[in-house]
């Protein structure tokens, strides 16, 4: 979707369709969210097929919905593609489970992904990023959005215990889950694409676990560590391990590529920001935070109201679905001054909620931040300037904000 909105325009909130894929593929959802935050911070929509949902768009309200698991449960599904049919893995899948079980599974995994724990991976990540950037530095057109899909696998594959021969296939499957209606990834209908990708990913982790049990092999990988997690004192079943492994694969692969390409596009369109970052490497961590805010690659998450819940000046009825629009919250002028301005010196950029908020805050956030910091450090130190070499193609998805194509050229930096 467009990350820089067009001029303010009249929006009829009575007819707006927040599940219209054209709004994200070729349209301008930020202009719609601006009006919703101002006029309808709690918005109700009924789809043509009778399904309905409520939306919150202000920063404070999005944090409330995502942060209060007692009022807004995750145990019926957390992504809008499940609207109208509860997630069959709810209550088992890590992302579709509430505390205390969610915390019992998450805590031992999170201990392996703290900022201190992932710091030892920096040199390895830097080598991977350097190899990734090399083709762009040769001066030919480089499709960053397409190539970046593989970047998280290059970084996290060894950490997860996934062999390199499987990276490309798994990246394709996770992209199918994230954007099942995009022609770049679609196989048949949206439902078929979701069913195929879900089956293949869960099947992959299931076989991975079976192989480890048969061989008795042990390693320090995150997936192997999942086999030893004991929530409530009981080990996870193989099905639970497979589903949680599926969730980890999605989290590892889906958003970082789009944060990379969207932030690079913002820097190309604003060369003064690129020069500012290149002149002062100390700005890179804040550049990463502003890039996360600006792109908001995980555009939304969904919850269900446990009871009638007052929020955003209205009441969400018990059992109703609520979509918390992260992409809108991160452009809320109540918190972010001039929210549609990309500013790498923004003093409160780190208050962005691109990684979510509350119990389900992204477990891999420290690793993602490290990867993004290293990527932009290497890019800025190696390239004098970047340029677009064609028009970007935006992802047709109301869940993930990103691009399928971003052709660029890079001018390699020449040191005296």
- Order of neighbouring strands in the sheet with most strands: 1-2-8-5-3
User: How would you characterize the largest beta sheet?
Assistant: 5 strands, mixed
What percent of residues adopt helix (DSSP H or I)? Answer: 40-55%
In CATH, what is the class?
A: Mainly Alpha
Mean pLDDT: 92
Poorly predicted tracts of residues: none
First-to-last CA distance: 40 Å
At CATH level 3, the topology is: Cytochrome p450
Helix count, DSSP H or I runs of 4 or more residues: 17
Quickly give the structural class. Answer: alpha+beta
The tally of domains stands at 1
Number of strands: 12
CATH superfamily: Cytochrome P450
Cα radius of gyration in angstroms: 21 Å
Name the helix and strand elements from N-terminus to C-terminus, one letter apiece.
HHEEHEHHHEHHHHHHHHHEEEEHHEEEE
What would you say the CATH architecture is?
Orthogonal Bundle
What percentage of the residues does DSSP assign to strands (E)?
5-15%
The coarse overall form would be globular
């Amino acid at each position: 979707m467009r990350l820089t909105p067009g001029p303010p325009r009249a929006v009829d909130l009575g007819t707006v369709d927040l599940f219209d894929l054209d709004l994200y593929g070729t349209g301008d959802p930020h202009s719609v969210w601006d009006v919703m935050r101002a006029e309808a911070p709690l918005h109700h929509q009924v789809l043509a097929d009778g399904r309905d949902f409520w939306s919150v768009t202000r920063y404070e309200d999005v944090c409330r919905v995502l942060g209060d698991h007692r009022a807004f449960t995750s145990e019926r599904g957390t992504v809008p593609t499940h609207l109208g049919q509860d997630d069959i893995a709810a209550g088992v899948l890590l992302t579709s489970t509430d505390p205390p079980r969610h915390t019992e599974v998450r805590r031992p995994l999170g201990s392996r992904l703290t900022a201190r724990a992932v710091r030892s991976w920096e040199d390895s990540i830097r080598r991977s990023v350097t190899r990734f950037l090399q083709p762009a530095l040769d001066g030919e057109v480089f499709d960053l959005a397409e190539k970046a899909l593989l970047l998280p696998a290059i970084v996290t594959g060894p950490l997860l215990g996934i062999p390199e021969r499987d990276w490309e296939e798994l990246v394709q499957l996770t992209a199918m889950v994230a954007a099942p209606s995009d022609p770049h990834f679609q196989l048949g209908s949206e439902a078929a694409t979701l069913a195929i990708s879900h089956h293949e990913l869960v099947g992959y982790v299931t076989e991975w676990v079976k192989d480890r049990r048969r061989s008795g092999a042990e390693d320090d990988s995150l997936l192997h560590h999942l086999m030893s997690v004991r929530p409530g004192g009981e080990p996870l079943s193989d099905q639970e391990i497979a589903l949680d492994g599926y969730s980890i694969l999605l989290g590892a692969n889906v958003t970082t590529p789009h944060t990379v390409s969207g932030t690079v596009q913002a820097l190309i369109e604003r060369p003064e920001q690129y020069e500012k970052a290149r002149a002062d490497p100390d700005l890179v961590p804040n550049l990463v935070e502003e890039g996360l805010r600006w792109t908001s690659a995980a555009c939304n998450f969904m919850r269900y109201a446990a009871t009638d819940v007052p929020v955003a000046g209205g009441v969400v009825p018990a059992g109703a679905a609520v979509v918390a629009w992260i992409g809108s919250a991160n452009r809320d002028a109540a918190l972010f001054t001039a929210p549609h301005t990309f500013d790498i010196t923004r003093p409160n950029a780190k208050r962005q909620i691109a990684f979510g908020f509350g119990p389900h805050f992204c477990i891999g956030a420290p690793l993602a931040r490290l990867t993004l910091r290293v990527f932009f450090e290497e890019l800025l130190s190696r390239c004098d300037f970047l340029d677009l070499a064609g028009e970007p193609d935006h992802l047709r998805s109301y869940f993930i904000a990103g691009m399928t194509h971003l052709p660029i050229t890079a001018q390699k930096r020449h040191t005296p």
